[in-house]
Amino acid sequence: MPGLDLAGDWVTRAASVAVLTGAGISAESGVPTFRGPSGLWRRFRPEDLATPEAFARDPRLVWEWYNWLRQRMAAARPNAAHFALVKLEARIARFTLITQNIDGLHERAGSAKILKLHGDIWRLRCMSCGADWPDRRATLPKLPPHCSCGGLARPDIVWFGEPLPVGVLRAAERAVTNAELLLVIGTAAQVYPAAGLIPLGKASGAKVVEINTEDTPFSGIADFALRGKAGELLPQLVERASR
Ligand code: BJW
Ligand code: ZN
Question: Residue 46: is its pLDDT beyond 90?
Answer without folding.
Answer: no
